[in-house]
Amino acid sequence: DQQVKQNSPSLSVQEGRISILNCDYTNSMFDYFLWYKKYPAEGPTFLISISSIKDKNEDGRFTVFLNKSAKHLSLHIVPSQPGDSAVYFCAANQNSGYALNFGKGTSLLVTP
Amino acid sequence: DSGVTQTPKHLITATGQRVTLRCSPRSGDLSVYWYQQSLDQGLQFLIQYYNGEERAKGNILERFSAQQFPDLHSELNLSSLELGDSALYFCASSVALGGGGGSYNEQFFGPGTRLTVL
Q1: Chain B residue whose CA is closest to A2
Q2: What is the spatial distance between Cα A69 and Cα B63, in angstroms, rounded to a whole number?
Q3: How far apart are CA A104 and CA B23, in angstroms?
């Protein structure tokens, strides 16, 4: 039962443009959300997170938006760079739980 | 480099066999998590240990077991292997128990062990 869903397996964006990666979740008990980035042959690396008490968190070129009523979050990358090409995983957990629930990932390709 | 090490990087074995995957957490981290990533699947949580004790269990098969040793390294044992066990196995570590936010709960992932069962 996939509680975190990333419905777009891949996304291609031109360098300099905005990349928007989407994520939906079904468990209303989730209260902490994270994005991880993964390059081939490496483990996922933490990118940015957001608590359910916020609706936006920004870190440089990366912004995560949370819409709790829609159970939806998105990651915006502005401007996109070729080095951003990677697989992006959305994850969520409950404050009382320790495991991260991951989506299947979206492969982002940023073309020059 | 996350500071989490996993060995071996690749493992090829046959059905019915038993293998052990090893993980060394970042220095100072007490929590170790194991995740499985099968083809076309997201990372699935298997099990977590904190300071030597099992703290949480996910969809881990009975054929799989894990432990965390006094030096905090962890091993994931997979037995009676089946073709469907072929996957990437990731270990992650965090300072604290996890859950919620904060730097102490952030999970740092190792590079993974790719297991191929033939």
Answers
A1: B42
A2: 40
A3: 23
| Model confidence at B105: pLDDT above 90 | no
Which of A36, A91, A98 has its CB closest to that of B97?
A98
Nearest C-alpha neighbor of A61 from the set A93, A13, A1? A13
pLDDT band for position A95 (50/70/90)?
Answer: low
Direct distance between the N- and C-terminal alpha carbons of chain A, in angstroms, rounded to an integer:
38
Rounded to the nearest angstrom, the minimum Cα separation between A13 and chain B is 22
Write out the DSSP string of A36-82.
EEE-TTS--EEEEEEETT-SEEEETTEEEEEETTTTEEEEEESS--G
Residue B33, token pair as written in the block:
């998590």
Q: What is the pLDDT of residues A63-89, one digit of tens each?
A: 999 999 999 999 999 999 999 999 999
Q: Does B104 touch chain A (CB under 8 A)?
A: no
